[in-house]
UniProtKB/TrEMBL annotation:
It is found in: Nucleus, Nucleolus. Signal peptide: none annotated. GO terms for cellular component: nucleolus. GO terms for molecular function: ATP binding; ATP hydrolysis activity; RNA binding; RNA helicase activity. Keywords: ATP-binding, Helicase, Hydrolase, Nucleotide-binding, Nucleus, Ribosome biogenesis, RNA-binding, rRNA processing. Residues 80-254 form the Helicase ATP-binding domain. This is ATP-dependent RNA helicase.
Length: 797
């Protein structure tokens, strides 16, 4: 039995080894079959409509099914087959067209076919321009890659660099932002990227522009040149210099919407409003108040503007949840706000361009561009936050009259259809007064407003397209007033270049007199006037202790040269004052002073001076009696508890109680009499009003029956009443009596849905409606028949 048992124990490893060998052989066969299917794939085939039509691994296909991805979008159907064959790609498609899956599926398939493990290091690097977009890409990667064994990481900052560095060595796929990734490549020891297989740049045109140029150039130097590179964006860059920097090899340009009639989705309704800069906040607040049951994104040009508009509108409570998002916020706060807005059904998000690219917020109804975008590409990305994946969306662009011609020209060049609309006057709500009150109440809001004003003007000043952005044509004083600021903040960069050059000249040039000289404010000075270093120092503010000395040197030129450099006053103590008084001052005759209940003896100058001090005398003065005021404004002394001895000294307790009850009872009787008299007068007044109303009703009934009364005397011409009283008493056609008003509330016609803006056709309809209501009268009504015909015309019969 023992040998048999031993033989059985030896047989188990053999069987398990055989099973592993068979499993490995099956994997190799499936990989070879998958690779053969990829080699035979025709990227230009018209039969590729679903993910099942692509040669994908079982793990990727299962992840796509679990995430409910079935059919391919246009960009996915054309880009994924090329990427599976290892081609470098430049992908361009409209916003919301599914570009994320177009590069995530090839990344998973490339590493799977090469049997990538955690020991092989980093295999794919995906770079995003913003943290919000990087988080979104990482979440999609987790969904479709749930069946794979790859490790993936998110490197976007906001956490300890040391904690991230400890995990980087075990990651196969990294989703990152350029700055944080470059920091790890430069500082993290042992982080090797020599085996990198794929590099993906999402929103490539943004990453390749001047904002990230230096970071991307330094980052690419660390990466191997033998890799597959993919660039995706809604507005793709095709510069040869950019492609050379990334070492692209024969890239395939995939643009599915290049031949389309419009650069934006067809389900997107685009409008623009011409609103002067001082009316921009009024228009924005009126829009939000008119769309409380919507999900809105409002784009502003700077983070300081986002903070000011958010804080100001939040205090005014428009009736919809308000959120704000900008690049200066902490990472945890940004992620929390993004999640809150994603889950919200109705909300308004004030944001900068950090969420203008790629971020997918579900069910956004409106995109409002309160500040004009820097170019047409930025406009396309902003409006792309709505009308995603064939859904319906609306966008509104606010333009100053000086921005309208140039911006419309740029949008027309990009094939963007946009329609002009007008804001209804009834929908405008002025918020300048409310903002001004809040700026007075909250100094921090005033400070925010000043910073927001300066940041807005600086952003306009720095824009390259001067045909659109013209700072001199903007009403900056009106804009400051609309923000609730008492005055227009000073803008330093508005000073002339010649003034800046004059201020930076050397002292030799200033004293030479060869050119006109200017002071700090830019005004011309006399040529013989030379400001010395001491004069400049004396004119400054917030200086140190030496400023007064320099001022004395300049102002008091004839001062004694032997004077002390710094004069210091000596403070004497009380003992020293007494000794000084005895030694140097003549003794005063003793006299008595009564202060309150205390008596003081004054026998020296020091005591006399102390007793003249208001602070010293305060505790001896009679402070009077504290009073409180009731609701009627009558003054009463504060009720204070008496000591037991004082209370007993007033007399027996029973007698005191009896007196108190009698006093209070007399007060109650007096008040009761006043109340009864007031009630009696009210009843009398009510009775008189009722009789007057009954008399008027009786007169009206007599007039309707034709009895002798004020209306019946109309024919005689002697009536003093209004001759149109009969028409007023007649029932209106289709009308209701006042008594039956509550019973027929359900029969009232429903109000039409109010529109926040109106186009030119609405104006024409309003004019036609007014024209219909006009009634031309050849002569004034004279007889009863004339009045009846006039009433019928007014009633629309």
């Amino acid at each position: 039995m023992a040998p048999e048992g031993k033989s059985k124990k030896r047989a188990r490893p053999a069987k398990s080894g055989e099973s592993r060998t068979l499993k490995r052989k099956e994997q190799q066969e499936s990989l070879a079959k998958l690779q053969k299917a990829v080699d035979e794939l025709d990227p230009k085939s018209a039969d590729i409509h679903n993910f099942t039509d692509l040669p994908l691994s079982a793990a990727t296909a299962a992840g796509l099914r679990a995430s409910h991805f079935e059919s391919l979008t246009d960009i996915q159907a054309r880009a994924i087959p090329l990427a599976l064959k290892g081609k470098d790609i430049l992908g361009a498609a409209k916003t919301g067209s599914g570009k994320t899956l177009a590069f995530l599926v090839p990344v998973l398939e490339c590493l799977f076919r090469q049997q990538w493990t955690e020991y092989d290091g980093l295999g794919a690097l995906i770079i995003s321009p913003t943290r919000e977009l990087a988080v979104q890409i990482f979440e999609v990667l987790r969904q479709i890659g749930r069946k794979h064994v790859f490790s993936a990481g998110l490197v976007i900052g906001g956490k300890s660099l040391k904690e991230e560095a400890e995990r980087l060595g075990r990651m196969n796929i990294l989703v990152c932002t350029p700055g944080r990734m470059l920091q790890h490549l430069d500082q993290t020891a042992g982080f090797v990227v020599d085996n990198l297989q794929m590099l993906v740049l999402d929103e490539a045109d943004r990453i390749m522009d001047m904002g990230f140029k230096s970071a991307v150039d330094a980052l690419v130097e660390h990466l191997p040149k033998s890799r597959q590179t993919m660039l995706f964006s809604a507005t793709q860059s095709k510069k040869v210099s950019d492609l050379a920097r990334l070492s692209l090899k024969d890239p395939k340009y995939v643009s599915v919407h290049e031949a389309a009639e419009t650069a934006t989705p067809s389900t997107l309704q685009q409008h623009y409003i011409v609103t002067p800069l001082p009316e921009k906040l009024d228009t924005l607040f009126g829009f939000i108040k008119s769309n409380l049951k919507s999900k809105i994104i409002v784009f502003l040009s700077s983070g300081k503007q986002v903070r000011f508009v958010y804080e100001g509108f939040r205090h005014m409570q428009p009736g919809i949840p308000l959120l704000h998002l900008h690049g200066r916020q902490k990472q945890i706060a940004r992620l929390g706000i993004t999640e809150s807005f994603t889950k919200a059904k109705h909300a308004c998000l004030f944001a900068t361009d950090v969420v203008a690219r790629g971020v997918d917020f579900p069910a956004v109804d409106w995109v409002i561009q309160a500040d004009c975008p820097e170019d047409a590409d930025t406009y396309i990305h902003r409006v792309g936050r709505t009308a995603r994946y064939q859904s319906v969306g609306k966008a509104v662009l606010f333009l100053d009259p000086s921005e309208e011609p140039g911006m419309l020209k740029r949008l027309e060049q990009k094939k963007i259809p946009i329609q002009k609309v007008h804001v209804k006057e009834t929908k405008k709500k002025s918020v300048a007064d409310q903002l001004q009150n809040m700026c007075f109440q909250y100094p921090e809001l005033k400070y925010l407003g000043q910073k927001a004003f300066i940041s807005y003007t600086r952003s306009i000043h720095l824009q390259k397209d001067k045909e659109v952005f013209q700072l001199k044509k903007l009403d900056l004083d009106g804009f400051a007033t609309s923000m609730g600021l008492a005055g227009t903040p000073n803008i330093k960069f508005q000073k002339g270049e010649d003034v800046k050059r004059i201020k930076n000249r050397s002292r030799a040039e200033l004293s030479s007199g060869s050119e006109d000289e200017f002071d700090d404010e830019g005004h011309k000075k006399k040529k013989d006037e030379v400001r010395t270093k001491y004069q400049k120092m004396a004119e400054r503010v917030n200086q140190d202790v030496l400023s007064s000395h320099y001022r004395k040197i300049i102002d008091d030129g004839d001062a004694d040269e032997d004077a002390d450099f710094l004069s210091v006053k000596r403070v004497l103590g009380e003992d020293e004052l007494d000794e000084a008084g005895k030694a140097g001052e003549a003794a005063l005759e003793a006299k008595k002073i009564q202060l309150g209940k205390q008596e003081f003896i004054v026998d020296s100058h020091r005591r006399e001076k102390l007793l003249k001090s208001k602070k010293k005398l305060l505790k001896y003065m009679d402070k009077g009696q504290k009073l409180v005021f009731d609701d009627d404004g009558n003054a009463h002394a504060i009720y204070e508890l008496q000591d037991e001895d004082e209370f007993k000294a007033q007399g027996p307790v029973d007698e005191l109680r009896r007196q108190f009850v009698e006093q209070e009872a007399s007060k109650v009787k007096e008040v009761d009499l006043e109340d009864k008299q007031l009630a009696k007068e009210k009843r009398k007044e009510k009775r008189a009003k009722r009789k007057e109303r009954e008399r008027e009703e009786e007169l009206e009934r007599q007039g309707m029956r034709g009895e002798k009364g004020p209306v019946a005397q109309l024919a005689g011409g002697e009536a003093e009443e209004d001759p149109l009283a009969l028409l007023r008493s007649l029932p209106i056609a289709g009308g209701r009596d006042d008594d039956s008003e509550e019973d027929s509330e359900d029969e009232r016609p429903k109000k039409k849905a109010k529109k926040w803006f109106q186009d030119d056709s609405d104006d024409e309809r309003e004019k036609a409606k007014k024209a219909k209501k006009e009634i031309v009268m050849d002569r004034e009504p004279e007889t009863l028949e004339d009045l009846e015909s006039l009433a019928a015309g007014l009633l629309g019969n």
